């Protein structure tokens, strides 16, 4: 069985005020996430991707359908904290996730809540801060850090809980390009070196390209999923749903229309350049 | 403008004062406040002032920051000491109409100035050398007995530490909203008192709305990190009384003793 299994989940935020029936924010989603995977979920604002993220650690419970994490049903009250220990959720705004006035004390917040022994908390905090490359900043005040640094501290705060999976709800939306790069490379490293499952919710296609698997959502439903190669090759489908594709994929798609044959869609700039060179020859 | 608030700021360090148990620091701080207001002659005032200088030096924090914290209250100090100067009783040394200065008035002004300055320096020293988490942790432990009468001690301490954490964030936000409203043509610098207070409304309302939204976000983030109240919680930084704290207690006890002895033996100056 998959590490996280989502089966036919429906969820709505309650009836709307003007008497209309509420639209489902998540409208029949079935998805399996395996241990050690790097999954990117992309879609428009309001497509239900953030709502889905909050389901993965029992912050929200499905109206119907079932979600299990490592075999435990998220609807089971007794398992709530066990699930949150396994699946950490990082939110969009880094400012609102840091609860202490000193970086290392903030990172310690999670393990403190779990009742971990003080010496062990110390060890976990140091390890988590090293993993996100923020160890030198352990005695700084969070409000003096840059956006990317804050978000990395927030990730360290989740890492200190020692989850097996980290879900990130648009962690780079409020960051500048440098901050985005810092956060994404940290995530890739954690996934590769510590074998932590990463579910990255994003609307930046360039970030989605780096994942093992891309899930595209629209209107609360899964539109398509597959490797970045498979997903971004369906340029027409994505365009029909007003979703972007990475620039290089777009270029290749347009050139194909002009009769220049690419045997596959390039996803990164470098890839695109080499393929263009071949095509020119 | 808002980023250089030095009051309530914490400077990490390893000085003897930093390493004192925060509970001991709070208790000694309270005892110290009581004792500065119980100094009635110049010798005891001198003892407490010298003691203040001693722990400022021990804190190994640049005097620049202490001076900065005094800057905020300089007006209050000047105002109260001038007021005291003219309120003395006894033979006037100098008189002009109803204004007269007496030896008693001068003494009162000196006492009030030194006391307030010492008070501010001591409280700055406390917050400079104790991280907000340590501080609230200490308050939580000191108030623990109140749990018997159902005071939600953990919740109060958590609220305090969150409030301290978000002071700079909200100040920054106030700055941003002010700039946004100025860009929309809000005028906050001219007009009478009433008009200026009114001009604050378009700043306070967005600030409140965003503070509530933030609070909701923070609560979500805390839940994501398995927060479930004070029960079963441990702390990374353990606090316990050590020999160092007893040395500090002994020094403070000596100061208190000295002040009391001076008060008994010497005649009061005010």
Mass-distribution shape of chain A: globular
Low-confidence stretches of chain A: none
Summarize the amount of helix of chain B as a percent range: 55-70%
CATH level 4 superfamily of the largest domain in chain A: P-loop containing nucleotide triphosphate hydrolases
What is the radius of gyration of chain B computed over CA atoms, rounded to a whole number of angstroms? 23 Å
Structural class of chain A: alpha/beta
Main structural class of chain B: mainly alpha
* Sheet of most strands of chain B: 2 strands, antiparallel
CATH architecture of the largest domain in chain A: 3-Layer(aba) Sandwich
Write up what this structure looks like.
The complex is a heterodimer of chains A (281) and B (270). With 281 residues, chain A is an alpha/beta fold. Chain A has helices at 49-56, 80-86, 103-114, 118-131, 147-159, 177-193, 205-208, 228-232, 235-240, 247-257, 269-280, and strands at residues 4-11, 26-33, 38-42, 64-69, 72-73, 87-90, 165-169, 197-202, 213-218, 221-226. Chain A has two domains: 4-238, Rossmann fold; 246-281, no CATH class. In chain A, a hairpin with a 2-residue loop joins strand 9 and strand 10 (221-226). Chain A is globular and about 65 Å long. The model of chain A has no long low-confidence stretch (mean pLDDT 89). Chain B has helices at 22-36, 42-58, 63-71, 74-85, 103-129, 132-142, 153-183, 193-199, 201-224, 243-265, and strands spanning 92-96, 99-102. In chain B, strands 1-2 form a two-stranded antiparallel ribbon. Chain B is 65% helix and 3% strand. Chain B is flat, with a radius of gyration of 23 Å. The chains are: A alpha/beta (281), B mainly alpha (270). The interface between A and B is large, with 41 and 31 residues.
